[in-house]
Specification:
CATH superfamily of the largest domain: Jelly Rolls
Structural class: alpha+beta
Distance between the termini: 63 Å
Radius of gyration: 20 Å
Largest sheet: 4 strands, antiparallel
CATH class of the largest domain: Mainly Beta
Helix content: 40-55%
Length: 234
């Protein structure tokens, strides 16, 4: 069967994208092309679901750009955010288990979210045939579990203010940009999102941010936080 020119260039685009991710760095050209054939490039509008709890889990995903949140909905309708994901993370890995049903939702937080949707059967076959790739996937999942354990420990041991301040510091270290002696953190979260992530209320988040501003530790707008001195922020 011949490959149409459009399909060929789409394949090349997907191979090129896969090459940019550390997870796939040890795959050879044939493996990359096979995986690319099992992959689709998807765009998701802001506040739209990528998948919901109860959906069939036939795919894994790699986030190309934008920010998404993963979480659950409580019985009273509140969002409980488990984690906030940035490029170039793998997610939807529950599809690697045998139950085949999602237990969480993922939702786009930016208007320009793009991702690679990978058929789980092809992904599993690659894990079976490439031991080094298998190890990379296990390492990726292990790091995620360690991050979740750290968050749970914080929810149990730290007070609300500490959790909010630690959230700002952690994100500034990972995604902030130096501006002279200060640090600028641009983000896609509402104060309600920060509250849902840190296990606090929106009112508590507002109170802590206003207090940090009044003591000249930060200056914040709706989508950015300027931190005066990251080391002394408390």
């Amino acid at each position: 069967m011949t490959t149409s020119p459009n399909a060929f260039f789409k394949l090349i685009d997907k191979v090129s994208m896969l090459r940019h991710f550390e997870l796939f760095s040890n795959l050879n050209e044939e493996e990359l092309q096979d995986l690319a054939r099992a992959t689709e490039i998807k765009s998701v509008a802001k506040n739209k679901y990528i998948f919901k709890s109860g959906d069939e889990s036939n795919f894994l995903y790699v986030l190309i750009n934008g920010t998404i949140k993963l979480g659950n909905t409580s019985p009273d309708g509140r969002e409980v955010i488990k984690t906030i994901l940035h490029p170039t993370v793998l997610f939807g890995e529950s599809s690697l288990s045998t139950n085949g049903v999602r237990t969480s939702f993922t939702k786009a937080m930016d208007p320009d979210v793009r991702l690679l949707q990978i058929d789980v059967t092809s992904f599993k076959e690659l894990m079976k045939s490439n031991f080094d790739f298998n190890l990379k996937v296990v390492e990726c999942l292990g790091n995620k579990i360690a991050n979740i354990e750290s968050r749970l420990e914080s929810l149990v041991l730290d007070d609300a203010r500490t959790r909010i301040v630690d959230y700002i510091k952690d994100n500034a270290n990972k995604y902030g940009r130096k501006v002279g002696y200060e640090m600028l953190l641009k983000h896609s979260l509402t104060q309600q999102d920060i509250g849902n992530f840190t296990g606090t209320s929106r009112q508590t988040v507002t109170s802590v941010l206003n207090d940090l501003k009044s003591t000249n530790q930060i200056h914040f707008k709706r989508k950015s936080i300027l931190i005066r001195d990251l080391e002394t922020l408390a």
